[in-house]
Amino acid sequence: MTRTTDWWRDAVIYQIYPRSFMDSTGDGTGDLSGITARLDYVAGLGADAIWVSPFVKSPMHDFGYDVSDFCAVEPMFGTMNGFRQMLNRTHELGMRLIMDQVWNHTSDQHPWFVESRANRSNPRSDWYVWADASADGGPPNNWRATFGGPAWTWDDRREQYYLHNFLTQQPDLNWFNADVRAAMLDIGRFWLDEGVDGFRLDVINFLGHDPSLADNPQRPANMARPAGAEPKDPYFATINSGTVCRPEALPWLAEIRAMLDEYPERMALGEISSAEDTLAAASDYVHGDDRLHCAYNAALISHEPFTRGGLTKVIEQVECLFPDHRLCWTFGTHDFPRLKSRWWNHGDAIIEHGDSLDRLLCLLLITLPGSACIYQGDELGLPQAQVAFDQMRDPFGIANYPLLLGRDGCRTPMPWQADAPWAGFSTAAETWLPIPDEHRPLAVDRQQAETNSLLQFYRKAIEWRHCAPALGCGRLRLSPTADPVLAFERTHPSQPLWCGFNLADHSVTLSVPDRHRQLAAPELSPWTPDGTRITLPPYGVALLTD
Fold it and tell me: What average pLDDT does the segment 400-407 reach?
């Protein structure tokens, strides 16, 4: 295959959520040694890289996204030696390691914040965002935290409010302060010196804020919410322009990129979240060679089934905004309901031909240009778990229950062995989140033993992606089709590829281009054209070449 020059441009990335991947100690929580023990599975899937969610020291109010020491491993997950073993094994298997970095905020237990809140004159007094009360003694403006409630909390010691876009225990760093930026870049160098291959930068578009502290405008009733936003989430009652995608932050990206460029073949993947137009915002963060290398595309994290028109609009926008394909496509992460449940259970009806839909979504993910990220368990077809309130751990879900159910349902432990205690994830008496019974039949051992399982399909699809020249560096050109078929061509001089997707639960007959009559991947898409026509079954996919 003709691969792109930069490994990250077309990589298949596998996201690992450490708490829920594999428990090696028997305490009910996953850890770094557990990840190391299961890396052969990830390599066998065909992943080029792993993204590991936070494992540095943290009080765990937000499960690692509240950092109290950026350069130490959280004891719950292991030691620095355990991290190095995980990193070395990743490299031995031919994969790269992308490490989650949380640079927008810290824990309120971080020594920097402890010093900053002590008084208004200490050396780090300006390392966080502090503001005086409004005239009535309340918060300085109407900014809301993404997890609910005001984005400001009063501190008696300083007699000021501090900004937190997330939990009260996650105060925002003041990126306007050059010393803060220098400290964060040194943290990046620490881990790059250890040998990590890149960073996933958490909520990177929250860096900075409106210095005027003006109120956010109310959202008009007829204005759509951002892609991926829960329809009832009160955070989006306003247009959050004071804290999200601030123009002041763009020059800071050049500083981050310059630090990364000190190290060959390293990269930064930006999470662009809660933006009004996520794709447009993401393009700003990866434009040129002095910003981030690539960004997530949350446009496919949808609660509504895709249509030809909807997908066409997304692809056209991507082709316009990302001509060099600095984009990572994904159907889910640890922050969103499971892919399977967003699609199979639409309204009160369970979608027919769901197994075929699973395979269509897999092929769509791997045939789009750019990199692709698979969240652990999506390759098994795990549905969203239903977690009772007394078993919930997610602060977002607990705070907003029952309006929003939170993120626990997509974070339950991986089922490795269908018939083992805790599905082979742990030997503990109890795990940090329960493993639902409906996940057991989908366990890795069962699917490895089944030739036609979804897991085996993902493996074959990723292997084919690595061998198909058009999927490495080929451009994308949409083909004219009618509902319900989406079709596009991935161009390549030696082996162009035509992909047709039937997005309906009934068979469809359509015309195929004159020069695309041969099956490109019979084991993935065995539908042979009959002359100039091809009939696709419900959720069928045609993969054709010259």
Answer: 85
For residue 61 the two structure tokens come to: 């109010």
Q: Please tell me which residue in 62, 172, 202, 408 is annotated as part of the active site.
A: 202
Report DSSP letters for 123-168, one per residue. Answer: TTTTSB-EE---TTSS-SS--B-TTSSBSEEEETTTTEEEE-SS-T
Residue pLDDT, tens place only, 266-306: 999 999 988 889 899 999 999 999 999 999 887 788 777 78
Pairing of strands 267-270, 198-201: parallel
Contact criterion met (CB below 8 Å) for 486 and 308? yes
- What three-state secondary structure class fits 272? coil
In b/e form, how buried is each residue of 234-260, taking b as 16+ CB within 10 angstroms? ebbebebebbbbbeebbebbebbbebb
Instruction: Output DSSP code: residue 381.
Output: T
Is residue 253 within 8 Å of residue 291, measured between CB atoms?
yes
pLDDT tens for each residue of 70-109: 999 999 999 999 999 999 999 999 999 999 999 999 999 9
Tell me the C-alpha distance between 338 and 355, whole Å. Answer: 15
Q: Report the C-alpha gap between 191 and 421 in whole angstroms.
A: 36
Q: Hey, which bits of 332-473 come out as E strands?
A: 345-346, 349-350, 371-375
Ramachandran region, residue 192 (left: φ > 0; alpha: ψ -120 to 50; beta: rest): alpha
**Distance between CA atoms of residues 344 and 333, nearest Å:** 18
Active site residue 262: yes
Please check whether residue 411 is in contact with residue 334, taking contact to mean a CB–CB distance below 8 angstroms: yes
Query: Can you read off the two tokens belonging to residue 218?
Result: 């109310």
Q: Would you call 419 a catalytic residue per the annotation?
A: no
Q: In sequence order, what are the beta bridge partners of 279?
A: none
- Specify the pTM: 0.96
For helices 178-194 and 250-260, give the axis angle rounded to 10 degrees: 30
Quick one: how far is CA 399 from the chain centroid? Answer: 23
**Tokens 């870049």 -> residue:** 185
Q: Which two tokens stand for residue 512?
A: 């195929």
Q: Where are the alpha helices (DSSP H) in 345-432?
A: 354-367, 395-400
In Å, what is the CA distance from 486 to each residue of 358, 403, 468? 16, 35, 20
- Distances in Å between the Cα of 460 and the Cα atoms of 47, 248, 372, 464, 525 are 12, 45, 15, 6, 11
CA gap 11, 203 in Å, rounded: 21
Task: From the candidates 132, 159, 261, 262, give the one annotated as an active-site residue.
Answer: 262
C-alpha of 367 from chain center: 18
